[in-house]
Amino acid sequence: MIALPVFQLEVPSSRRHQNAQQGMLAVLSGLLLSLPFLFADLFLIAWLALVPLLLSIQQASLVRTYILGLICGLSFFISAGYWISDFLMLSKAYSLLKSNLWGLVFWLYSAQLFAFIALLFQWLRSHTRCHELVLFPVVLVTLNALFPALFSARLGDSQSQFLSAIQGIEFTGVYGLDALIALSNIGIYMLLFQPLKPCTQKN
Questions:
Q1: Tens digit of pLDDT for each residue in 75-113?
Q2: How far is residue 97 CA from its own chain's centroid?
């Protein structure tokens, strides 16, 4: 018998390692972001929770960026919205399987918010000259306002124990607090992972 050659598409180990790191960073962001919603006293975590996600999409393609944003969103909504299955079982008398399936649909749908935020931010920062410190808060606040969420999960909603921050948004509402939290996240990311370039003098 003649042995036919078998062709296998192998992903380099370095690429697999990079993909795994990016995925773990996205999961970490979602978990960190869920903590202030689960434990109100941990409100400060929200001010840096998106840094791992921003790091994970740093050099990612648009498709990869969308996937990483989706992973972050799933991690967040499954953690913070774990109660949705029990809610469906109690309110609709669904079976455990049916409630979990509908819960998965809810989590996947809600996770699109973070996927779109990551995707739009990644596209805009490579196609515009707008500074990232301005771009990220604008993208996050705009999509939070436009996305038809079933249950509100704005970053500002996690700051019920941060009285100073709440008092400072009397005129802007929760969107102003969202913008401040987004600004904090992108600022910390740039400070840690995008050091300032030295100034050069023109002749």
A1: 999 999 888 888 888 888 888 888 889 989 999 999 999
A2: 28
By C-alpha distance, which of 138, 95, 90, 96 is closest to 117? Answer: 138
For residues 190 and 133, is the Cβ–Cβ distance under 8 A?
yes
Which is nearest to 88 in space by CA: 107, 70, 68? 107
With the C-alpha atoms ordered 160, 162, 166, 169, is the resulting torsion angle positive or negative? Answer: negative
Give the tokens for residue 49.
């929770």
For residue 187, give both structure tokens.
């600022």
The model carries a pTM of 0.84
Sequence-distant (6+) residues with CB within 8 A of 128 are 135
Could you please report the per-residue DSSP string of 68-133? HHHHHHHHHHHHHTTTHHHHHHHHH---HHHHHHHHHHHHHHHHHHHHHHHHHHHHHHHH----HH
> CA separation (Å) from 132 to 44, 125, 137, 139?
22, 7, 8, 10
Residue type, 58: Q
CA distance linking residue 176 with residue 131, whole number of Å: 19
Count of beta carbons in the 10 Å neighbourhood of residue 66: 20
In this structure, are residues 144 and 133 in contact, taking their beta carbons and an 8 Å threshold?
no
Which amino acid is residue 131, in one-letter code? H
